[in-house]
Amino acid sequence: MRFQRDEWIDVFRELLPRDDWQDLIRLQVSQHAYPFEVKLLERPLKQNPNISDFSDWTVQSHFIMTNAAQLEQFLEHLVIEQQEMATEAEVTLIVQKQEQGIVRVTNDCVAMYGVAYEELDESGTEYENFFDAVLPHATFPVEVVFCGRDVLENQDSIHVMTLHDSNWQAVFEEHLLHLLNRKEVTTGKSSRSSKQTLEDFMSEFSLLMAYNFIVTRDATDRFGMLDHFCTNGKIAHFGKIDNVETSFK
Questions:
Q1: Burial environment of residue 55 by CB neighbours within 10 A (0 to 12, 13 to 18, 19 or more)
Q2: Concatenated DSSP letters for 210-245?
Q3: Average pLDDT for consecutive 10-residue bins of the chain (249 residues)?
Q4: Which segments of 98-138 are extended strands (E)?
Q5: How far apart are alpha carbons 109 and 12 in whole angstroms?
Q6: What is the model's pTM?
Q7: Closest to 95 measured CA to CA, from 82, 105, 109
Q8: How far apart are alpha carbons 234 and 226 in whole angstroms?
Q9: Cβ proximity of 135 and 117 under 8 Å
Q10: First to last CA, the chain
């Protein structure tokens, strides 16, 4: 397995059940030392299509934070309105240190710097690969967010579950198999067996299709994620990961 550290990972805010983007800022900042540079930028009304960075965005606020109290005071009154995933952001908050970004927050996502990518194994389904890679390193309980938006309509396409042990299969069977009966799935298909299986679900809601996601977050704020759009079909490990950790099994 090959790992690439010190890259960015985007997490859509719709995949955060509590939209606690401020906690993710605190999490990222806690892994570095003060001071930090903080910029709040607004998209210009007429943006130059040839500029791909933030150089033409309007700076609304610009601070050097030297301690946690200053950051908390800033975050306490900051509102960044949430939008649906993959929409054009109007506002971007950047936290960086020595010109290296640590975390960015936009209207639709949180981008976190520092991620290890793990290739999927050739054997087993992507769901099995994912949980085999993530759960051995997790501290329970583990929050699991499933999004099936490639198949389901936006409304009720995101489901949140909690794992108290490694038996994710039982939790999925209890909470997600009913999605196979949704009209988005059944329309135009011949009648199915009344006995739906986890294998049916994993086939119908492949994580290699755009806008189908699986995200885990354990009790220590260690994240795992797999999808086609943000992780490019790889398993992403990020959040509270021990810096000396060099391998996964």
A1: exposed
A2: TTEEEEEE-TT-EEEEEESSSSTTSEEEEES--TT-
A3: 68 97 97 96 81 86 97 96 92 95 97 92 93 97 97 92 98 96 82 79 94 97 95 94 50
A4: 100-106, 109-113, 115-118
A5: 4
A6: 0.90
A7: 105
A8: 6
A9: no
A10: 9
